[in-house]
Amino acid sequence: MPLTELIIDGFKSFADKTTIHFDQGITGIVGPNGSGKSNITEAIRWAMGESRAKSLRGSSMKDVIFAGSELRKPLNRAEVTLVFDNHNHELKFDNEKVAVTRRILHSGDSDYLINNQSVRLKDIRTLFLDSGISQNSLAIISQGRVDQILNSRPEERRIIFEEAAGVLHFKEQKEIAQNE
Ligand code: ATP
Ligand code: MG
């Protein structure tokens, strides 16, 4: 289920709408310090439902909105879209392409869309858990994450292994069912 396109608009340093195309194989993103490489992986995790501002290096979720620069006024909204190639129907949608969008307004309200239809965060989580990639999974290893895994408490490390083994998905489903 390849990620083929990432559209970032108003997220962190990306004040202008920017589309990044991922071709087959490995994509390398290079650039000087502070040029926005980590912001790209954060945009992906954010669109996948990341809810901890701290894990996106902010103190509140609104910090992901472009905060202005010497030459540009701050923006009042941020939007990120991930486009997946779904021709193998690995995601439970009939569409050949599945677009997942997250938006946040200055008020702090976030909303999510799948193929331009409004959905709940729960639907986003389910979509990615079913596909085996969630925003915490080892599919994305950020700067410092290796140290964090090595230094984590046994209980925390267990969660990482459960996720990699695909058990976490069933645990979450059980929890959802118990809460309903
Ligand atoms: P390094 O090579 O040091 O890891 P990097 O390419 O990963 O650098 P990032 O950490 O992605 O760089 O980008 C940091 C830049 O993003 C900083 O210049 C910071 O000011 C800018 N930035 C972060 N949040 C915002 C925001 N909300 N609004 C505007 N700019 C932001
Ligand atoms: Mg970085």
UniProtKB/TrEMBL annotation:
<comment type="subunit">
    <text>Homodimer.</text>
</comment>
<comment type="function">
    <text>Required for chromosome condensation and partitioning.</text>
</comment>
<feature type="binding site">
    <location>
        <begin position="32"/>
        <end position="39"/>
    </location>
    <ligand>
        <name>ATP</name>
    </ligand>
</feature>
<comment type="similarity">
    <text>Belongs to the SMC family.</text>
</comment>
<protein>
    <recommendedName>
        <fullName>Chromosome partition protein Smc</fullName>
    </recommendedName>
</protein>
